[in-house]
Amino acid sequence: MNKNLLLLALAQGLFLTNNIIFIAINGLVGLSLAPVGWMATLPVMGYVVGGAASTGLVARSQERFGRKMSFQIGLFVAFISCALCAWAAMLHHFWGLVIATFIAGYYSANAQLYRFAAAELAPTIKEKAVSLVLAGGLLGAVMGPYFATHTKNLLDTPFAGAYVTLCVVALISAIVMSFIQFPPVVPKKAGDSVGRPLAVIMRQPLFIVAAMAAAISYGIMNLLMAATPLAMQTCGLEFDSTATVLQWHVIGMFAPGFFTGHLIQRFGVLRIMSVGVLLNIACIAVALSGVDVTEFLISSFLLGIGWNFLFTGSTTLSLQAYRPEERDRAQGAINFFVFATMAVSSFSSGALVTTQGWTWLNLGSIVPIVVIAVALIWTAMRLPTAPKP
Fold first, then answer.
1. Could you tell me which of 238, 170, 174, 211 has the C-alpha nearest to residue 330?
2. For the segment 199-229, what is each residue's pLDDT rounded down to a tens digit?
3. Using CA of residue 215, residue 53, residue 129, residue 18, what is the dihedral sign?
4. What three-state secondary structure class fits 188?
5. In whole angstroms, what is the distance from residue 298 CA to residue 363 CA?
6. Which of 3, 64, 105, 290 has its CA 20 to 30 A from that of 57?
7. Cα Rg for the chain, rounded, in angstroms?
8. CATH class of domain segment(s) 3-181+196-382
9. Which residues contact 191 (CB under 8 A, 6 or more apart)?
């Protein structure tokens, strides 16, 4: 790993600190402010809908300003949006919180490109670079739950202090980003290839499978994790236990990053993604076996590892589906599908867990996981040589 890759992994960890705190508290703050219970996860939904709405704008800013400047713009938005979240919480303004998290989605859409930027920083070891930068999320596994727990009562309004803390995290991340040297932006000249139309890129079987796996794996992970704090509160479990469960979930998400790239190189991307499918099924089985802290912790941990294998694998697979000049459009499209799926799952998680319960939420998650499994089998049968990175 070179210095730039290490710093980008650190930026990824700070990004995940933001995400984990948002997951841990947005539903709870929303529940305390929402007019009715089923609207509790609208602030979580606002975050991912904002990300989906921002993917096109982010792609254009990446193309025009390059990686560093675009990432810094995202961090500026992170600072402003977290300050607005704190303001909305202190004023007990539910819709203000939803709007603030919607704005924060721009930062998320930007930071979701860190994994693609990793491949450009180390082009000879793309799989390992993607995996290792994702492993930087381990920092979020430690810092996120710690800050959520220890800053929730920092100010008079519950959890307002956590939002203020995230403003500081954004500033630190901006400083880290300033030291990363990305490949220079090459000015486009008349006659330079602009690549294939996006519609042509998106019709490729590899692109379809990669985008589907990325979107569904993130959607399932978000569906279950956005509902976990609400389900644990309903079961009478303390917030400290919720923070611990989220911590182990994020450890499961990012600790495998130290070896997932190696596993993909050795066994092939489709095999590792298939293991991710099996881990998701195991997660649901454990979740259905009980509602004590142990079941929540183990199922969340398995969910995290399953997500890592599927998401790292889908990112690796997608690198074969577009040319360098098509990068920004293709990556923006993949992230749009990810955020759109997350938006649906964010809303569904609150509605389902408060109306149908934790059991039916998990049972319903089996269907999209089976869809990924069928897509992987189809790819292995139709394109036996393509998935080798």
1. 211
2. 999 999 889 999 999 999 988 998 888 788 8
3. negative
4. coil
5. 17
6. 3
7. 20
8. mainly alpha
9. none
Residue type (1 letter), 380: A
B/e letters for 210-230, b = 16+ CB within 10 Å, e = fewer, are bbbbbbbbbbbbbbbbbbbbb
Give DSSP secondary structure letters for 315-357: HHHHTTSS-GGGHHHHHHHHHHHHHHHHHHHHHHHHHHHHHT-
Confidence category of residue 360, pLDDT binned at 50, 70, 90? confident
- For the chain, which residues make up each domain, given as ranges? 3-181+196-382
Asked if residues 121 and 2 have their Cβ atoms less than 8 Å apart, the reply is: yes
Angle between helices 126-135 and 3-33 (to 10 degrees): 50
Q: Hey, what are 360's tokens?
A: 């039916």
Residue type, 118: A
Neighbours of 282 (CB within 10 A): 16
Kindly give, in sequence order, each residue whose CB lies less than 8 Å from that of residue 55, ignoring residues fewer than 6 positions away.
109, 332, 333, 335, 336, 339
Asked whether the beta carbons of 110 and 19 are under 8 A apart, the reply is no
Q: Say how far apart CA 347 and CA 366 lie, in whole Å.
A: 18
* Helix 293-318 / helix 239-254 crossing angle, nearest 10 deg: 30
Sign of CA dihedral 151, 154, 159, 164: negative
Q: Is the pTM for the entire model greater than 0.85?
A: no
What secondary structure letter does DSSP report for 235?
A: T
CB 25, CB 148: distance < 8 Å: yes
Backbone angles phi, psi at 188, to 5 degrees: -80, 140
